[in-house]
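Internal ticket #5521
Category: modeling
Description: The requester needs a full-assembly model to guide mutagenesis choices. All entity lines are attached below as received. Residue total reported by intake: 570.
Assigned to: D.W.
Attached entities:
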Amino acid sequence: MGLSVFSHRSSLGVILTVLKARFLIISRYRGSLFLESLLPLVFAAMPILIGVAVAGGDAAAGQNFLANVGTADYKLYMLLGASVFIVVSTMLWIVGFWIRREMEMGTLESIYLSPAKRIHVVSGIASYAFIRSSIAFVAALAVGSLVFGVNPFRGEVYAAVAFLLLGLVPLWGLAFLFGALILKIKEANSVINSLQWVVSFFMGVFFPIAAFPPILRYVALTFPPTWMNQGVRASLLNLSYFFEAWYIHTAVMFVFAAVVPLLGYSIFLSTEKRLKRKEGVGQY
Amino acid sequence: MVHKGFGLARPGILQSLHTFWDMSKKTIVEFSRYPVAFIALFVQVFLIILMFMFAAFSFVAPGTGAEISRQFASVMVYGLIVNLFLSFTVWEVGFSIREEQFRGTLESLYLSPASKFGNLVARIFAVLSWTAAMSAFAIFVVGMLVGGLPAKNILLAFGVLGLTISGFLGIGFLFAAVTIRLKESAQFLVSFVQFFFLIFSAMFFPFSALPRFLVDYVSRWLPVSYSVDAFRSLLIGLPEGFPELMPLNSELVIIVLFGLFSPLLGYLVYRWIERKARATGTLGEY
């Protein structure tokens, strides 16, 4: 441990240093920040165009969507789904890729050898992901509203923001789970790409999960981002919450917020411990 | 003849072929170490199809689901196949260069006398074979879901696909060049371009779904649009209204030109940017 002194201040120092380092790195790649804010637009545009093609026109698409989903504003529905998805995706992507890149660059073992606690290093990364994903959400919604000509402020805006913030807490836990998965299986690129589709599928980014067969619906309901997505949509588009009442919806999200981060971190620790004992964390 | 800068290496076609073969083997060995990734790709294709099918069902008027979904599914799945080839070609070439930058091996690779062209092409050889397998899987899955898909004019459609893949190689080379220059941002650019073509080349829906001005001012200027249009129109049996952009013969001319000139142009741009990066010493920077 050398001359290291452990205190709350030094712990906070580690988190802030990691955060600063990540922002310094991304500041070198401003183009990626710009393009990141455009991706949800493209992501939302696909189902909108599919809808117009299937229904045979904009008006028919609105009518059919109202009959099937409960709102005629299918553009805002898709935009909200895509914007919430970019939050989830950014969180998972940043944490997953961070571990993978440290592995590839051969610096993951060095991090383990440093006196800084991993929880603080990972918290720094997770905080960075939290800030990046929040910025991505706001940018996507703002630009998307202009492009698609929709008004995102027509419903219960404060409730939507509350659902979004509450939904971000379990995402930290999912990010740890994801990190554990990357540590275990190594190859991140394809897994991240595929998991993004798994996530968007179960979140119901493009459709209500009521369209799922019962088993899939139950699986989707155990997935915290599904609740975040529905909470945001229900408050802004006046759709029904899961189990109808907003307070049940909120209560379930609080449970997720309390349980998932602890669960995610404990799984991350046990995976890490097993790897250190068997093969070391430097292998990739 | 032994070039003094290459030691005992003999640059030529044989050496290029050896490089291509060895690099392909290396890529295949690398992939074989990550079986989860291989399975994940199939899962990904399956989920993409399911997700868009569910999205389509949300827009179907009650009582007309099965018929419309079969009609829509054939347009979507044949577009998806072109999209898969485009995505993997562009992503694999661009991303592999980025990986070499990360690992710090890109400069070493360029210091070796191995053929640079063979190196670039080898990166996508293995991926293309797997993309073909995934395409077959996509057709099988969607066929099962909607009770069969039309598959007419198969030979001509394969010809169109072959030329299209050749054209995509050019785009892949361009992205390799862009990766050398833009580094981290190139990944997002690749994602963006994938989505750009997905929408403006109407890969998941007919061109009639796009606003008219977008078709006229964007889609018609992209050779990829003609590839998508011709490929799926041929396979669904050229029904009335298909191809949507031009008569088939005119589309075929554009596709042939795209397949022949795109790789040449892409490779020239790649060499130019690569030479610039070597001259300024930024090749290994990331």
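Resolution: model delivered.
Comment from assignee: Chain B is about 75% helix and 0% strand.
Ticket closed.
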